């Protein structure tokens, strides 16, 4: 299949994702995933371009495209070049934080894309998430959720960024008043705490050198 033919096929599928029949939507997503198995970079770029050019597309359809992207990335992230990875990371980050309101299906789908890319390009993903952390301001719940998920999916890769993450989050912890924000903070802190202590020791700085990973029992002495 030529590149132009592949792009036309992807565009046709993406245009059909707005069908009101959920079964059709699922079939379109499955077809996109199948296409992504064969031509991952071209498929992902087509999805990114579609979302970028259809800014008024409502969030349920945006979430469907993002979920298809995540499924492709889950098995094909290693085939991305750096430019494509950067483009997808920026798209997912923007999608995830486009609204301050909690629109979980959309934000979770975008977060899933970031986590999938982060298994292969952790530095780029963490740098983008750190860009979303502003001094003295509560971060977006979806950013906290993504940081927690990355700590599980790629714990070793997250370690070098822990001092920067904690130096941004700890000062604003007391500002968390809403339950959703508190839950997001707790999820992040638990995930960071579960990173093995020897890995965290490498990060130094703000990390407690006496802390232990979740799998390490404390001494009874």
UniProtKB/TrEMBL annotation:
Any matching Pfam family: HEAT_MROH2B_1st
Species in which this protein is naturally found: Pongo abelii (Sumatran orangutan)
Recorded GO CC terms: cytoplasm
Membrane-spanning parts: none
Superkingdom, taxonomy of origin: Eukaryota
Family matches, as InterPro entries: ARM-like, ARM-type_fold, Maestro_heat-like_prot, MROH2B-like_N_HEAT
Domain MROH2B-like N-terminal HEAT-repeats: 32-189
Protein name listed in UniProt: MROH1 isoform 8
């Amino acid at each position: 299949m030529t590149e132009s033919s592949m792009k036309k096929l992807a565009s046709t599928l993406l245009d059909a994702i707005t069908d009101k029949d959920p079964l059709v939507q699922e079939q379109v997503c499955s077809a996109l995933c199948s296409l992504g198995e064969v031509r991952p970079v071209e498929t992902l770029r087509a999805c990114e371009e579609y979302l970028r050019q259809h800014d008024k597309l409502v969030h349920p359809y945006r979430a469907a495209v993002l979920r298809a992207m995540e499924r492709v990335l889950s098995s094909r992230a290693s085939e991305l070049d750096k430019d494509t990875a950067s483009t997808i990371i920026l798209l997912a980050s923007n999608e995830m934080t486009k609204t301050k309101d909690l629109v979980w299906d959309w934000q979770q789908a975008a977060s899933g894309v970031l986590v999938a890319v982060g298994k292969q390009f952790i530095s780029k993903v963490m740098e983008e998430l750190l860009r979303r952390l502003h001094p003295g301001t509560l971060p977006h719940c979806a950013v906290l959720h993504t940081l927690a998920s990355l700590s599980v999916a790629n714990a070793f890769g997250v370690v070098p960024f822990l001092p920067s993450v904690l130096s941004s989050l700890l000062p604003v912890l007391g500002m968390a008043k809403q339950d959703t924000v508190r839950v997001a903070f707790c999820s992040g802190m638990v995930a960071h705490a579960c990173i093995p202590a020897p890995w965290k020791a490498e990060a130094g700085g703000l990390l407690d050198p006496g802390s232990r990973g979740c799998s390490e029992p404390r001494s009874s002495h």
